[in-house]
What we know:
Layout: H1 3-17, E1 23-26, E2 34-40, E3 46-55, E4 60-61, E5 68-69, H2 74-87, H3 115-120, H4 138-145, H5 162-176, H6 180-192, H7 203-207, E6 213-215, E7 222-223, E8 248-249, H8 251-262, H9 276-282, E9 300-301, E10 307-310, E11 316-320, E12 325-331, E13 333-335, H10 338-350, H11 371-382, E14 388-391, E15 408-410, E16 420-422, E17 428-432, E18 440-446, E19 454-455, H12 457-469, E20 473-478, H13 485-501, H14 503-506, E21 508-518, H15 520-530, E22 553-556, E23 597-601, H16 609-620, E24 627-631, H17 650-662
Parallel strand pairs: 1-3, 6-13, 18-20, 18-21, 21-22, 23-24
Antiparallel strand pairs: 2-3, 2-12, 3-4, 5-8, 6-7, 9-10, 10-11, 11-12, 14-17, 15-16, 16-19, 17-20
Amino acid sequence: MNGDILAAGLLAMLAAGNVRAGELWQAAPEGVPGAVLVTSTEAGKTTFECVGYADLAAKRKMTPDTVFWMASNTKGVAAATALAVVGEGKLMLDDPVEKYFPSWKKLAAKERPTLRMLLAHTSGLPFFTDKPLPSPGMAALAERAAEQPLAYEPGTKYQYSNWGIGVAMAMVEKAIGKPFDVVMAERIFKPLGMTDTTFVPSADQHARQAVVYRLSDTKPPEPMVVDRGLAAPYLTYGTYPEAGGGLLSTPRDMIKFFRMIADGGKAPDGTVIIPPYLMKAWQTKQTPSGDANSYSLGMSVDESGSLSHGGQCYTWGEANVKTRRARLFMVNFCGKSAAYSDFRENWQAVTDLSSKWYWYPSCYLGMDGTKEQRQALIRELWDHPAAAETKLWPEGKVPFRKDDKPIRFVENELWQRNLVVSDINDPFFVFYPAKGVQNAPVAVIFPGGGYSVLGWNKEGTEVAAWLNANGMSAAVLLYRAPDQRQAALCDAQRAIGLLRRDAAKYGIDPKKVGVIGFSAGANLAVAVSTNWRQRAYERVDDADDQSCRPDFQLPIYLWDVLERDAKAEWIAPLQDNGKEPKIRAEYPVDAETPPAFLAQAKDDFCQIETTTTYFRALQAAGVKNCHLELMAFGGHGYGLRKVGNPTDFWSDLAADWLKNLLK
């Protein structure tokens, strides 16, 4: 199988469909004018789902570069600006306002309002002032605020306040000596590459701006003039920057901001925007413990540490540092309708940042993904430009060859961003070198899929990236499927022999070649670890003179190695007939079986006895350096993905085990 030919074919199909990978467009559900839905995965892959129109009358489509009024989403960016300045040591979160504005000393309050309180809406300030300011700007707003009694004792309750965010930015201006929008551009926009985010739009940005529509259950969407409900001149649109809700931005720009949060406060190039100790504070509730409002600094926060915020026209974004995922809901609505509510709830459900899978949204919004969209996603997930493909067998010498069908992509798991492949008749591996590591250990990766299909990225390339990050090279093996177990064992043995023979070419240590597999791939890992004394095929060349014994094995959520009744379900071992589970004779464990790291969840449908029985067999044979990790719950098929379950942590333990074994 030639990956270059396949890639060229997919590119041709994409060109024919005029679809750009990651930027999709389709009609909106009835009753919804338009939206741009943005998802960004833990791997940093960002998808823009452009739905409907920015201008219904002009038939101007929504795009990733449509300009939206961000309204109160501005508050999160303002908070990030303040945190960046605090990180520089030029401000403190608990600095009182009166340190920079002495007029605040006259305010009657037991606790003195601080920058932290302003950002958390606990300062005592009401939403805004209806008194005209003596001059434009945040400093004038701060001085005006000192003239009005506080609405409550600072720190005792949460009360949403645009005014408070403005005073916070006035403190930033005093600390830095520049207007806050300049500070924001320097600390946030520039390092993140947010070139299309502004308080005052250019003519080009104005032309790209989304029309705002009023929604209802009784009328079609109708254009409206947004009444911001806030007093002039302080919040007059476009006259000067307004910290509580004045930003305009695009989906392409705003996802960069939320991506920064998901990446722990760092820019794409690794530049620290917000130091770790302040990121920790940002992910912590700052409102009083008894207050139902879970708000942090300029953004809402939930129990998982996700930071989010919305705006007046229903723009909304969220990022989670633990799962490293982010999402945006960029819309142009005021009012509500049943159609809109269903649309948003459905999208939020299928892009939940802490869900088991970070689902690809297009197929689950009540709209079917187009052929071109599916091809775009396949192209994105299949891409492996930095890796080299190695065919296992010389032409005409493939043992137990079944047929000549070309490799096939199965689309039923694309919604999980999991590319599943089948009809593998010309097996190959894709090699991923450990950068900067000489004579590196290497693991051959066997994706799972019941010997019917193979999970290319979830149990393949994502595992290779993990191994690379831990100083190991990796080879993702596409062994033969469907239903070719004997051929798959041949492929596994051959891959190990090729890597050992060509160790110098790959920059690997031929004495540190192991295997890791998942589900059926774990079964194959056990098969090659217990059947290495003799090849399962006739010798082809000198690669077959090398040992095919792995130096280590990691069978993860192991499947189907136990004896079972002929009438039992295909995954069920002997359990209910009074007999102890036993390893089948085709997996002959002995003292020279490689050391193993095993992991499985107790609620796995493949039954935990599969793993525990194999582990006991290794112990009984005297195999040293084995580790068994049983996890309370997490099911089956999770790979390396962080889903908020105990299964999230097996890879950390496995990395330590490998380090100790291979040092």
